[in-house]
Design brief:
Layout: H1 6-42, E1 49-50, E2 65-74, E3 80-84, E4 88-92, E5 97-105, E6 111-120, H2 122-125, E7 128-132, E8 139-141, E9 146-155, E10 170-179, H3 182-191
Parallel strand pairs: 1-7, 2-10
Antiparallel strand pairs: 2-4, 3-5, 5-9, 6-8, 6-10, 7-9
């Protein structure tokens, strides 16, 4: 009587499990940059557009006004304070505006954070256009350091032409800072 070849089946299952775990770990590391890229390209989930300064001479402010609210959050594990200098401002559609945020490292050691953002409601996200921003960049802070950072933006004039955005009079820009650790944090601290 011949015994079935069970060890090969076990090897195949074990190899499949190892391959699956490897793919999942790779997907976990790739998720943030891929999601960021997807949102920037599609405007999905209220992600604002990013424009270059070349478009500025073409901007023509319109009569419609929109209130922009600014929200700031810190994820657990990052000993910082983070707040906008103003909680809201009213801008005309197509008008270039700037808001400043203040961050401060409350710890006695150097730390590094990186921020992600969102814009609500989603009907406004695709029209909220940033010229300059601190998001998705490592921000090293020395122990006790305080810093101001700017976001330069405008609401795209085509916002006026979108029937889905007719009732939108308030747009909220929300940032959350997350701790950055490991080699990325060491490199950001070394770079200053």
């Amino acid at each position: 009587m011949t015994q079935p070849v069970v060890p090969n089946r076990h090897k195949a299952v074990a190899l499949s499990c190892v391959l699956f775990v490897g793919v999942m770990v790779g997907a976990a590391f790739a998720a943030v940059p891929l999601y960021d890229w997807f949102c920037r390209v599609t405007g999905f989930d209220g992600t604002p557009s990013v424009a270059s300064v070349d478009v500025l001479p073409e901007l023509q402010p319109r009569e419609r006004e929109v209130t922009i609210r600014f929200d700031a959050n810190i994820a657990p594990g990052l000993p910082w304070t983070f707040k906008p200098k103003v909680r809201s401002m009213t801008v005309r559609v197509g008008e270039l505006a700037e808001v400043r945020y203040e961050i401060e490292n409350l710890s006695k050691t150097d730390t590094v954070g990186t921020s992600a953002f969102n814009v609500t409601p989603y009907q406004g996200g695709g029209y909220f256009t940033k010229i300059d921003c601190f998001c998705f960049e490592a921000q090293p802070l020395k122990a006790g350091e305080k810093r101001d950072m700017a976001v330069i933006f405008y609401v795209d004039p085509s916002f006026d032409d979108d029937k889905d955005a007719d009732g939108v009079s308030v747009i909220t820009l929300s940032y959350t800072f997350f701790p950055l650790t490991g080699e990325a944090a060491k490199a950001a601290i070394a770079a200053g």
